[in-house]
Design a protein that fits this description.
The structure is a single chain. This protein is mostly beta strands. The chain has a single domain (15-169), classed as Roll (Pnp Oxidase, Chain A), CATH 2.30.110. The protein contains one helix and ten strands, in the order βββββαβββββ. Strand 9 and strand 10 form a beta hairpin. The two termini are 15 Å apart.
Length: 171
């Protein structure tokens, strides 16, 4: 069994202590992790469990969870300058504009639990990011959903003073 993490808290965990990053390095061997959620007021990691329930011939109910289908929605997401947490937007824009649907399933995503003592992190190697719409009224909004995929690689994360995130897999 995995080691249960210790929470590094003196009060309740703040939302910013749970972060999702997308590799925006354009296929480089060194990931460039961009935190997601800039300008999004609320975003939660949905587990969407695939549940099964049955009652046997003795009248005993049995429940099981077959898998979790993890996803997170970022709405609103506004088109903004690249230097302002906007490096993912042009990539998604181009894939959607050209109908390059297979490329929407080639993203690496890092989920970091900054509130744990060891700064636990999970790397999902084959994630799908799906733009939902483009438009709006006063601004051009571009909301999207991220579906975590692939066998997760568990480890830890470190953040440098310049905001650069480094993932280290468990040994």
């Amino acid at each position: 069994m995995a080691t249960i993490p210790t929470f590094d808290l003196t009060a309740r965990a703040e939302r910013r202590q749970f972060a999702l990053y997308v590799d925006v390095s354009d296929g480089s061997s060194t990931p460039e992790w961009e935190v997601q959620g800039y300008g999004t007021e609320e975003a939660a990691l949905e587990f969407s469990p695939d549940e099964e329930s049955l009652t046997d011939v003795l009248g005993i109910q049995h429940n099981s969870v077959n898998k979790l289908e993890r996803s997170m929605s970022f709405d609103p997401n506004t088109i903004r300058p690249v230097g302002d947490h906007g490096k993912l937007n042009p990539v998604l824009h181009e894939y959607a504009r050209r109908g390059e649907l297979t490329k929407l399933s080639t993203f690496k995503v890092l989920v970091v639990y900054w509130y744990t003592t060891d700064k636990n992190a999970d790397l999902y190697p084959t994630c799908t990011i799906i733009p939902q719409s483009l438009g709006g009224s006063a601004r051009t909004d571009f909301p999207y959903d991220i579906k975590l995929g692939g066998e997760p690689i568990f480890g830890t994360a470190d953040k440098a003073t310049d905001g650069t995130v480094t993932f280290t897999p468990e040994v």
